[in-house]
Design goal:
The protein is an alpha+beta fold. It has three domains: about 230 residues, HUPs (Rossmann fold); about 80 residues, Chorismate Mutase Domain, subunit A; about 110 residues, no CATH class. The strands form five sheets. Strands 3-2-1-4-6-5 form a six-stranded mixed sheet, with helices on both faces. Strands 7-8-11-10-9 form a five-stranded antiparallel sheet. A five-stranded antiparallel sheet has the order 12-16-19-20-21, with no helix packed on it. Helix 1 packs across helix 7 and helix 9 crosses helix 11. The protein is elongated and about 90 Å long.
Length: about 450
């Protein structure tokens, strides 16, 4: 019997070692998410045994959600468990309030993964296993998920911080429990695991036993289906990347080229584009409506679709995904104090002034008077070319190809009440430097804030 237990423990450790060999280079730093439950305690034991031979650094992280009255005791247990192997365990207490709209279970998961994303290391190791994968697939199925959702959890996945690594994903829960008992390990039991108001607990305690009666290999088969769907998802992504190569114009998706694709490929490409930007996938109805607006609206129509704190817009033929930003302050004005790089957070960008000779705003034209920045109020006229009459600034901006949402924030430079320069358009004819004159060139660099990454995008 002892020999059988030893062989069983050795086989599990060998499978984990093989997973590590696939993903983890020597010298990498691994952080184990240590809840104190049987799965993470077994993972701790295995990883601590493997670390010396596989030459990776190992520490632990315990996330305290402050939900259970036992939360403090679990944190102390996790620290003691790691210390028994000579390892450090950090405890991070999280706030669920920012995620309250997700419910208690969803908020705890979102806060936990947000804590994982802040880990400084190469890999964040999760002890999720084959039964967890089967439960995930069922939950996604009843939610009406597409191929990406039904693919379940990946064994290794970059997540904006450390790579999420699940070396036990192909192992059954029962095998992990056998390992823990055979090794004489101690763990804690979370009383909330018996609460069937939580969807995952209901699936684990009620649905999976019924499926096992239908087919004893139900959990393994569901996990295998997830692997097939993950492969299909990768094929869909590869097709989208090929279609993107054919439909991109100047780095942006062409609405006309998107309209020429068969509907399924157009949806696939749009979904891929949104995912590549780090945004959460819209449901099928929302995606269809988005596609309809992007490809069917009039050429001069302002297409503006809100999505996860971002905006999907079409300007001319190009499709843009930009962060949603508050409108700039009405009547904004600011005076230049002479700095070369002048950041204007209210407008979301930086004005850069560079000394020049014979080009740009003539120092003579400024005459030592203050230069002021204003925003468009409407009706401005501008003459960047002395050989042509003054024209409507709105027309010049349209001809320049500056998108409307960037025009709203474009700083206009005034001196003595006169418009003397518009970045990206030019310098007023009367303020332009003559050959050999001291001058300033002015450029505007909008900030490029990253698109928001919803917590749900992390939790997979």
């Amino acid at each position: 019997m002892a020999s059988s237990r030893k062989r069983r423990s050795s086989e599990l450790a060998e499978r984990v070692a093989a997973e590590l060999a696939r993903h983890v280079p020597r010298g990498a730093r691994l952080t184990l998410a240590l809840s104190g439950g049987v799965d993470s305690i077994a993972a701790l034991d295995i990883l601590a045994r493997l670390a010396p031979a596989h030459l990776f650094a190992l520490d632990c992280l315990h996330v305290n959600h402050r939900i259970s009255p036992h939360a403090g005791a679990w944190a102390r247990f996790a620290r003691a468990a790691a210390r028994a192997y000579g390892l450090r365990c950090s405890v991070r207490t999280v706030d669920l309030a920012p995620y309250h709209r997700l419910g208690v279970e969803g908020a705890a998961r979102a806060a936990r993964y947000a804590a994982f994303a802040r880990v400084r290391g190469d890999f964040l190791v999760l002890a999720q296993h084959r039964d967890d994968q089967a439960e995930t697939v069922l939950l996604q199925l009843v939610r009406g998920a597409g191929v990406a959702g039904l693919a379940g959890m990946a064994a290794a996945r970059p997540a904006g911080g450390p790579t999420l690594l699940r070396p036990l994903l192909g192992t059954a829960r029962a095998e992990i429990e056998h390992y823990a008992r055979d090794r004489g390990l101690k763990w804690v039991e979370d009383e909330s695991n018996a609460d069937e108001r939580h969807a995952r607990n209901l699936v684990r305690r009620r649905v999976m036993p019924l499926l096992a009666r239908l087919n004893p290999a139900a959990a393994a088969n569901l996990a295998r289906s997830a692997a097939h769907l993950a492969e299909a998802h990768e094929l869909a992504r590869s097709l989208a990347a090929l279609d993107a190569h054919e439909t991109m114009r100047d780095g942006r998706l062409s609405a006309a080229a998107l309209a020429r694709l068969p509907p399924a490929r157009a949806r696939n490409l749009l979904r891929w584009t949104i995912a590549e930007a780090g945004l959460g996938a819209p449901d099928s109805a929302r995606l269809d409506e988005m596609l309809r607006q992007l490809v069917s609206a009039r050429v001069d129509a302002a297409v503006r679709i809100a999505l996860d704190g971002a905006l999907v817009m079409r300007y001319r033929d190009a499709i843009w995904l930009v962060p949603a930003q508050a409108a700039p302050p009405a009547g904004f004005r600011a005076r230049w104090d002479g700095r070369r790089a002048w950041h204007l957070p209210e407008l979301g960008g930086t004005l850069r002034f560079k000394p020049a000779t014979g080009v740009g705003m003539a120092a003579r034209a400024l005459g030592g008077r203050p230069v002021e920045v204003r925003l468009r109020a409407g009706g401005e006229r501008f003459q960047p070319d002395g050989r042509r009459p003054r024209r409507m600034l709105k027309t010049l901006l349209q001809e320049s190809g500056i998108p409307p949402w960037e025009r709203e924030r474009l700083p206009l430079l005034y001196c003595a009440g006169k418009l003397v320069a518009v970045p990206g358009i030019g310098v007023a004819a009367g303020a332009a430097a003559a050959p050999g004159e001291r001058a300033w060139t002015v450029s505007w660099a909008p900030d490029r804030p990253k698109l928001p990454k919803p917590a749900k995008a992390m939790i997979k």
